[in-house]
Amino acid sequence: MPRIQRYKKNTTGLQYKCNNCQKADEREQGEIKELRQKTRQSLYVHKARGFDSNTGDTTRYLMPPWGPMQDFALGRLGLTWFNWCAESICIGSRQTTSMVLYKVWKTLEADELFHTPQLTPVSDEQKRRAALQLIRYHQYKFYTEGTANNNYKRKTRTILTLNEAIAGVNMNLSVKFALGVSLFSNTILSLGTERHHHFSRAAWNGELLSAVALTEVGHGSNTKQLRTTATYDPSSQQFVINTPDFQAAKCWIGNLGKTCTYALVFAQLITVDGSHGLHAFVVPIRDPTTFLPYPGLILGDIGDKAGLNGIDNGFIMFQNYRIPRENLLNRTSDVTAEGDYETSFSNPEQQLGAALENLSAGRVGIMQESVATLASAITIAIRYSAVRRQFGPDPDGEELPIIEYEMQQWRLFPYVAAACALRIFIESFIDQYLECVEMSHSGAKLAHLDVQDMVKQDPAKATAHPWPNPNKACW
Fold first, then answer.
1. 17-31, 43-57, 142-156, 390-404: range with highest mean pLDDT
2. What residue stretches are annotated with the Acyl-CoA oxidase C-alpha1 domain (predicted)?
3. 212 beta partners
4. Terminus-to-terminus CA distance in the chain, angstroms?
5. How far, in Å, CA of 277 to CA of 149, rounded?
């Protein structure tokens, strides 16, 4: 049991049991004074990483010199051994990512549309707010022309960072942005050719909103068994999309219920010589003026869910719905005007892998947002526990922060450790994933390439670490 009395700022009137205890307390008071001096140096001289959108400076104080945390010394929160500065750096992002995050947050913080309502709105109002927020988000143009012209790795890293930033503001907006803009655009650029690039530009300019229609009522993870068909008609040079039965209806598709005007539909491509497996098609869904569905479509909203009710998840069924031949994403496979199927793959499994490769970015984004959500939640809990006081050794004296109690530490600290470990893992994993996809786009063979091979190609990666030393960064 720690001697609580020793941590009190004003020790006047305290009775010590022996001179040794008093000397130990005096040493500890000196240590606390030294720590506070280092705190001021860290906060006001050695600025921590961040971004100041008012001055354009790429540095920002890690903690402002006001508020309930101002009296707490770095490394102990005044009364504890918890180092909030090291925690903030470890579960935060790397420097370049932090600059983007702070720029987005600072901008949206000043916009009332992005403020959290005091009461949880009904689901229709949540959908309306998310749609309006996405329009306003486009107007801020965080995604610049320079970013769009970057290579796949840098561009996708920026997209993931932007998505993480808006996830901290409104998770509904984050999902709407990911499905309706970034994932759609990335898939267009990866699986399509020049004739499709105008769809990507339109998505980033806010001229269209998309949905990614993969999952069906009967199948989701087992993509080989998806049953929506796209049959080529040589006489009209069109694909005819059909839903054989309700089990093949596209279901649970984000943005499909009310707001999207286009959908990226995955269907079995069929020509006169048979089925050629899963392919992606850009399919117009609604009139962009009236938002009414086109003839040949049956679609709707699936209703309220347990969460994310700002996303209009929906279902769709196709009845002899025709789209132009050019709407097939044809970087790896194509159908000629006469109906001949052409592909760069000899194995159908490779075609399936190419069709689904970019959707993995969505899974990576979910991992990243989950880690960011955990980090945000545990940071709030830790800081609140440091300023929330309850009970103390002296009924008439100062109460203790609840973080001093072992039960509170037992409940919270494992999540701090998890947030740190998962943050380090996801940053490393994203880099490796983007490198693999970029190599795939360049035509490199990945069949026998593993992580060790990737490290061998760049020995610096074997020792490089994306994280600064928290102690050096703080002190």
1. 390-404
2. 359-445
3. 264
4. 30
5. 32
| CA-based radius of gyration for the chain | 28
The answer to whether residues 240 and 321 touch, using CB atoms and an 8 Å cutoff, is yes
Evaluate the CA torsion angle 85, 91, 97, 103 in order and state its sign.
negative
Q: Which amino acid is located at 416 in the chain?
A: V
Q: Higher-confidence residue: 135 or 461?
A: 135
**Are β-strands 229-233 and 262-271 bridged in parallel, bridged antiparallel, or unpaired?**
parallel
- Other Cβ atoms closer than 10 A to 78: 20
* The two structure tokens encoding residue 395: 């009924």
Instruction: Using CA atoms of 274, 278, 280, 281 in order, give the dihedral in degrees to the nearest 10.
Output: 40
H-assigned helices in 70-151 = 84-91, 95-109, 123-140, 145-148
Instruction: Kindly report, residue by residue over 123-135, the tens digit of the pLDDT.
Output: 999 999 999 999 9
* Distance of alpha carbon 88 from alpha carbon 85, whole angstroms: 5
Domains of the chain, earliest start first: 43-97+362-474 (1.20.140), 210-345 (2.40.110.10)
The Cα-based distances of 37 to 4, 87, 401 in angstroms read: 23, 19, 22
Residue 404 one-letter amino acid? E
Neighbour count for residue 391 (Cβ, 10 Å): 10
Q: Helix 152-167 crosses helix 183-191 at what angle (to 10 degrees)? A: 170
Burial (0-12, 13-18, 19+ Cβ within 10 Å), 145: exposed
Residue 370 tokens, joined: 């989950």
Q: Which residues contact 120 (CB under 8 A, 6 or more apart)?
A: none
CB 224 within 8 A of CB 213: no
Can you read off the two tokens belonging to residue 280?
């992606």
Q: What token pair was written down for 95?
A: 């420097």
Greater confidence, 253 or 31? 253
Question: What per-residue confidence (pLDDT) applies to 398?
Answer: 86
* Angstrom distance (rounded) from CA 121 to CA 125: 6
